[in-house]
Specification:
about 625 residues; alpha+beta; Beta-Lactamase; 4 domains; 5-stranded mixed β-sheet; Nucleotide_cyclase; EC 2.7.7.65; Diguanylate cyclase
Length: about 625
Amino acid sequence: MNYNEEYIILKIKNRMFDRFHIHDDQMTLEEHIQSLMDIIRTELSIKCVRFFVYKDFLKKYQHVFISYVTNSLSIINHEESGQSDVEKNQYIVDLPIHTDRCNKGLLLKEDNGVEFGMMLFSYDQVRERHYSNRFWKSLSNALCQILLGIIELLGTLSEKRRYQKLQRVTNEFYSSMDMEKVLEEVIQSLKEMYPSFSYQLLLANFNSDNNRLPIQYLDYTEQNSALMDAFLSGEFRMEDDRKKKRSILYFPMKGKQGIYGVLQITANQSIIIGHPDIKFISILAQTASNAIENAHLYQQSKKLIEELRLVMKVSQQLNSNLHLSEIVNYIVKEIKESFDSHEVGFVLKKQKEFIVLPGSTNYFFQKESKAFLSFVEEYFQTSKDSLFIGNFIQTNHVKNFPFDSVMVEPLRREGKINGFAICLHKNPYYFSFDSFRLYQSITQHTSLALSNALFREELERLVITDYLTKLYSRNYLDEQLKQSMENDKCGAFLLIDIDDFKSVNDTYGHQVGDEVLKQIANIIMKTLQSDGIAARWGGEEIVIYLPNQSLKYALMLAERIVILTEMETSPRVTISCGVSYWTKERKDHPLKLFKRADEALYMAKNRGKNRAMAYG
């Protein structure tokens, strides 16, 4: 090799070294190759230059060619080059077919003689003879060193970039609870590291309007075995699509509590993806999985806190000594708001009959609800379990029933089912299982509150009623009479006494006498209905107070009770009744009102008993 040939090779090396030194790590693989091609074209005075690298060689440096896209460096199989039978010391070969205006090829060989590629160029025979075979050998070795130097430098930089991307994604993960931000950072890092790949996040459960993320719902009916295998097993899977000449990689997004989806990556089949890249992508997929899991746990904890607050709020309100109607009104309102339900009803058993409690929504007081209520009542006769159905209409348990989502929880008192709480929605599968559990918790607290309210109302009723006749007590009537004379315009007072009641006790005994008292009390309650207050005054005396009623109406009512008593009692007895009346126009007092009624009763007794008389 002469001095001129040595000088050319030295100049090519120096110029490439200057490029390395000046641009350091700022140049891409494409820019490095283009720079080398420019230098060769200039120094050798040729027009066309192209580089080919054998695919087998890529296995060693695959991470560089994956990370850096270049159009100036083609990848081919060694067999495709057509140079598999060249001599050992041969470096220049003729191309059988001109490729991109190139007619010659320089075999690129390492020091050990192993070929890793070829430089194609255009050269005429006259100028080719100007350079010796040693020159072409030296140029081949020099280009090998330069290309390997470029690839190894970029390989180091690629590794550095990986760690930088991992640090960036990790920093985002630990500094933010925003799952979408972390996912965006993961996808962006992958695109920067592997720009030729395409990405898809296949997630099992994700709600977002973020158009920047390549997200699709994971289809559980997907026939793709590699995809579903990765999702179910939690292991990396890969498949080759030979028709489309591509490879598809599936990275499971696995957290500590489950697998949330699959990161799908599609790559050109000519690119060899090595273990370091798979490991790097797996780490990013793991980071994305942790972000999704943290977001799920955060949302779940928020939801649990909200549910706990609701239960505590309901429990606190229910423990504030509310009456039965107040409890139902409050809890129906809370359930409708919390579960977005269409209808809410509470049904309790009273005297062996199930009754819809006031405060329930309108549907439960309509005829259309009777068939469903009967179905629920029959269900709890044989079962103690709750009802939680998402497609009730399809079950055909009740005809023409408009609600598909049904939650029914039994209400228990002393361990026995004493009623049930119903929550309905027209849409199918509207209530989640978590909603059902919350509903159970609320209704259990409600069941206890209803039992306490019923017990309290029972005690209050016992305090203000007579044990034998079930009429109100004298104290209760005194209070109501006093309030009425303060607030109302008028009122009538009826004093009733059983005629010859002593002879009834003497003839039939006190037990029969008690039965007679109960019969008369029932007649009075049936006749009175809700117009007034009836109370046992003492012994065989009963009083009735009619607020805002005239003397005429009171006397008519008294006469009717007198007639019914004689007709319906057994043994037959009669009563006498004295009626008095008060108005706002004159000053009056409960004691005066009683004395006038007593005077009227005395008059009725003196005139033959079994009658009613008035004393205004």
